[in-house]
Amino acid sequence: MRKPIDAEIQQLQEKLNQAPNDEQPKSGLELDGIISTLNTMIDFSGTKISEEIINQFI
Fold it and tell me: Of 4, 17, 53, 57, which is most buried, counting CB atoms within 10 Å of its CB?
């Protein structure tokens, strides 16, 4: 009963080894961009905050 499962595991492992080892697309937070934005001096003394600045944090 275990032999068919072992054979399938072996086949899947071989397919996995043959698959291209491309880097997965990035998802989640871009920490370098966040750090860069936080290190930027921003003038909040005005009555409005520009959309450019808001978009940096979105």
Answer: 53
